[in-house]
Amino acid sequence: MSLSISDQEQLLTGWGRTCPSLARVQACTSIEQVQHEVARAGARGVLARGLGRSYGDAAQSGGGTVLDLQAFNDISYDSITGAVTAGAGASLDSVMKAIVPAGAFVPVTPGTRMVTIGGAIGSDIHGKNHHVDGTFGAHVQSLTLVDGSGEIHELTPSGDKAPQFWATIGGMGLTGVITQATFDAIPVTSSLISVDTQRANDLDEVMSVMAAGDEKYRYTVAWIDTVSQSARGVITSGDHAPIDQLSAKQRTHALVFEPKAIATAPPIFPSGLLNKLTVRAFNEAWFRKAPKSASGDLQSISAFFHPLDGVQDWNRIYGPRGFLQYQFVVPDSASHLIRAALEKLRQVGAPSFLTVLKRFGAANPAPLSFPTQGWTLAADVPAGIEGLGQALDDLDELISEAGGRLYLAKDSRQSPQMFARTYPRLSEWQQVRDGLDPRGVFTSDLARRLSI
Amino acid sequence: MNDALGEPQSVLVLGGTSEIALATVRALPRGRLRRVILAARPSVARDSAVAALTADGIAGVTALDFDARSTQEHGAFVDSIFEAGDIDIVLLAFGVLGDQEEAEANPDLAVEMATTNYTGAVSIGLHVARRLRAQGHGSLVVYSSVAGDRARRSNFIYGSTKAGLDAFAQGLGDALHGTGAHVLVVRPGMVRTKMSAGLPEAPMTTDANVVADIVVKSLRKGKETVYAPGPLRFVMAGLKTLPRPVFRKLPR
Hints:
The structure holds two protein chains of two kinds.
Chain A: E1 9-12, E2 21-27, H1 31-39, E3 46-49, E4 65-68, E5 75-78, E6 83-87, H2 92-99, E7 104-105, H3 117-122, H4 130-133, E8 140-146, E9 152-155, H5 162-168, E10 177-184, E11 186-187, E12 192-200, H6 203-213, E13 219-224, E14 233-240, H7 248-251, E15 263-264, H8 276-289, E16 293-300, H9 301-305, E17 311-312, E18 323-330, H10 336-347, E19 355-360, E20 374-382, H11 388-401, E21 405-406, H12 416-422, H13 426-436, H14 445-450
Parallel strand pairs in A: 2-4, 3-4, 15-17
Antiparallel strand pairs in A: 1-2, 5-6, 6-10, 7-11, 8-9, 8-10, 12-14, 12-16, 13-14, 13-19, 18-20, 18-21, 19-20
Chain B: E1 10-14, H1 19-27, E2 35-40, H2 44-55, E3 61-65, H3 74-83, E4 89-92, H4 100-105, H5 107-135, E5 138-143, H6 156-176, E6 181-188, E7 191-192, E8 206-207, H7 208-221, E9 225-228, H8 232-241, H9 244-249
Parallel strand pairs in B: 1-2, 1-4, 2-3, 4-5, 5-6, 6-9, 7-8
Helix pairs in contact in B: 1-7, 3-5, 5-6
């Protein structure tokens, strides 16, 4: 074998741009082709990759075959049942563009529309409505999966194949290749969100406002200023605005959804551009920009849910060393760990301008699904910071002791021990996976790193 | 797998008793290490290196028999290691210094130096590169020497083996560029180890752990060539421009 790269091979990373590895990227246009790739899989295995928005090494597989299912992009909406059927490669962006004008919205959206249906299921994504509506996987009615023997399964949440269904929800693509799914959409009468905003001067206030608002709002999230010692924040909550809340002019285009990218981050950013000073300035501005308290603001879907989608390739701003996102959940009984985590990140000098706090509702039946009842904090951190590894290991310890855990779609650094300890249903999941994939065809860098 | 913070899970040391390589293993972040292979000929030194690293709290340290000169066996040797799991970092650290004057008098000794330091390294280096390439990630650290930058009268046989090794390793790094695998060429000056014991100390002589720290930092930054200590880069750049009549007259 020559050392040179072939045309099909590509270096892949997650959204955090750390740990690249080389894989043969194969576009698939039919389910037969997916079966063919699974059948001819070599020792380094096969993995489906969507839009590469998981932060760590979940959607890459060094030396393996990575399937690109962009061609699986059909979307159909049944206005009578309110269900959407979409190919695994369709993005939430394209789903929204297809269904919002028809008066429907996706059941769950994360902070970006640039994720695929396959990825949304594999990572069992959550959004600002988790405390009310649960994860994306909880709204899936059925999905099509090609398993490790090339067999095609129609999986549903109950019935004979329920274990295989729930192992695939949050299964990080390791139970097979998802090719299509049918999921609930929710009816909306406008494409606008009615938003209430409240500034809070310290973390206690942020958390009590959020806990009190659990019942009141469908969507709630808080942005935390990690640079300020008090960990002040801005809580935004909202729901889909009913058409009668719109002005006469707005009603003429109530269901229009045409988001635009407003800028693209330049390809080269120097390391260290995001430092304590620049982040402090950003956070100050962000905090001041929010009204002390406002209610009933009408915002677009993209402004409310996906502000960063407005800047293409924003992940470049962390420079060549890349970044990671640390996201954990802890039960309500360990809510003090939110403060401990913010404190730790501040001590190590990790400037984070995208720190988000949110409440989770109850967990679903999927063994590897991340969300469980309690608090979740997500913080972006540049990877090059001295002492970061130790600080996060220390936090892992506290989180694991408190019964919490880390989100696999964000993880790029936890230890295999931490993972196994905090996902106690791992062996149950592995049994189902071994049934679907007896040859061990499906793997990823994440799976190798964590011995999944 | 290396993680996002550059912490490796597995290390293969070729020349498993090399003091600089062992210091490098110690200097690596060890929170994720679970497999460390010391490959060397069987010896008491190898056994005690396994024991010492284990006593230091490093997990999964084992020894494997490896002879740089047995190039016929290198392919199967490397394959068996990589088939048991990915290797994140390979340290190519074996080499013999030999006695220049004896080697001048006895070319067989010179051939032995060349076989170990250059031929053996080319062989195992290519096999390792093939596997790193196939797994799509990983780093190969090649311990070269400033002795290879410009051959000196006092140790040109050793120096020439390192010059060859250095050129090979640079080319290998270029061949692997963009494949996810990466080669770091380290050029230490004189290092205080048992290999150099008894030799007069050159200026900027350093310790194994200093070299080790430089290797670990350079790996994290993805560097391709590094001197140890760093300022040797400028010294060597100067020395390389000296006319031969002047260079020849320099003290050793």
